[in-house]
Design a protein that fits this description.
Helices cover about 50% and strands about 15% of the residues. The chain is an alpha/beta fold and about 450 residues long. Strand 11, helix 13 and strand 12 form a beta-alpha-beta unit. It binds NADPH dihydro-nicotinamide-adenine-dinucleotide phosphate and (2Z)-2-iminopentanedioic acid (2IT). The site of (2Z)-2-iminopentanedioic acid (2IT) has 12 residues, from strand 3, helix 5 and helix 15.
Amino acid sequence: MPYDTVHSLEEFMSGLKRRNPGEHEFHQAVYEVAQSILPFIKDKPQYRDNQILERLSEPDRIISFRVCWQDDEGQVRVNRGYRVQHCNAIGPYKGGIRFHHNVTQSILKFLAFEQTFKNSLTGLPMGGGKGGSDFNPKGKSDAEVMRFCQSFMTELRRHIGPYTDVPAGDIGVGAREISYMFGQYLRLQNEFTGVLTGKGLAFGGSLIRTEATGYGAVYFMEDMLAHQNDGFEGKTCLVSGSGNVAQFTVEKINHLGGKVVTLSDSGGFIHDPEGINEEKLEFIKDLKNNRRGRISEYTEKYGGTYHEGERPWAVPCDLAFPCATQNEIGADDAKVMISNGCKGVAEGANMPSDQAAIDQYLEAHLMYGPSKAANAGGVAVSGLEMTQNSMRLSWTRDELDTRLREIMLGIHGQCVEYGQKEGWVNYLEGANIAGFVKVADAMLAYGVV
Ligand code: NDP
Ligand code: 2IT
C-alpha cells in the first residue's frame, strides 16, 4: 500500500474509533473494508470527494428499545432490542435478527455494515440492516421464546415493512422464532406481506432458504476450486458450528464428494475421522433443531473424540468452513491450518476470521472466501423469497437452487474481476470493491443525502 494510503487508513480509523468508542467489532469490520477501498478510490475523486466511505461508516439510523416479557415463573424480565438500519441506497434494509447473550450495539453495527456490501454482491435490490437482542434463548421454554418474540415484534413492527426493512434469521433465530414474530406482526398490522424472510412454507416462505447459506458457501468454494482446476472429491474439510449454516454446509460437501471431520458448538468440538455422513448429519439436525442438545452427545453415539472448550482448527485439513460466529479463528489458528496444508477457507459465519488471521491467509495466497461473498447465499434466497411474495407465487426447489447457484457464480466472478493478482485472486479485495461500487454509484446519483 502506498505511504499516503497507509496514512489515510490510520487517519480514517482514528476518526472512526473516536466517534464509536469501544465498538471493537464495528472497528474491525470497517477496517477490513477500508483497507481495500482507500487504495481503490485514491484516483477516483467522485467517490473520495463525496465522502462515500465516510458516509457508509455511519448507519442511517439505530433503533434501540426495551423488551419486557414474563418467564414461566411469572417473573418480569427485561432485555434490549435493536435494529440497525445501515444503508437503503439500493433497496429496503435487509438482514437478520440475532438472539444471543453477547449481542451488543457494536456487534449489530458490524453485521449491518457487512450486510450492505454482501447484499450488493448478490445483484438483488436489497440494502443492509441487522437487528437482535441480548436475549439468551438457551434453556428457555417454547412459551418463553414465544412471549419474548411477541414483545420484541410489538416494538419492531413500527420500523419495518416490505418496502422499508425486511428482517430474517441469524444466530438464535430460526424457523420457530420467525414464525412467532410473523404471527405477532400479522396480529398487530393486519397485513399479510413479506415483511420477514425465512418464513414457513405454509405462509409465504421459500424452498431452499433453510439450506441456502450453507449450500452457497460450498458453491463458492466449488467455484474457487474450479478456478484452480480442482474440485471437492476426496478433500478433508473442517466445519465449525452445528446450527443452520453448519448443517447445510456439511450436507452439500457430502453431495460433492468431500469428507467433513469436525463440527462444534459453544462447548467444544467433535472430531470424527471417518467423516460425518448423511445418517450422522440427520442425528445432528435432530439434536440441534428439535432436542436443542449439546454436540458432545455425538461421540456417545458415533465415536470419535470430543474436545471440550476447543475449536477444530488444529485438525489437519484441505479446506475449512467456519460456520459458528465472529472471531473464531485467530492468527495462531490460521498459521496451524496453513502449516497443515489447508488450501482454502470459505466463511459461512460473519467475520469468523480476525484481521491477523486474514493477514496470514493473504500472505499464503490461500483461497480465502470472505463472509460477505461466501455466505451471501442465505440473503440471496431471502431476496428470492421477497420476489416470490411480491408475485404471489412459489418457485420450485430446482428453480431456486439453480438461481442460488448462478448468484454464487456471479459473486465469484465479481471477486475475480476486482481481485485478480499476479497468479492468485485476492477475494477479500474483490468482494469489498465489487460490493462498494454499486452502493457508491447509487449514493452518488442521489447527491448529498
Ligand atoms: P445458529 O444459531 O443456527 O447456530 C449457531 C452455531 O454457532 C451453534 O452451533 C452455536 O453453538 C455456535 N455458536 C454461536 N455463538 C458461539 C460462540 N460465541 N462461540 C462458539 N460457538 C458459537 O446460527 P446460524 O447457523 O444461522 O449462524 C451461524 C453464523 O452464520 C453466524 O455468524 C451468522 O451470522 C452467519 N450467517 C447466518 C445466515 C443464516 O441464513 N442463518 C446467513 C449468513 C451468515 P451453541 O448451540 O452452543 O450456541
Ligand atoms: O448474515 C446474513 O446474511 C443473514 N443472517 C441472513 C440475512 C437475510 O436477510 O436473509
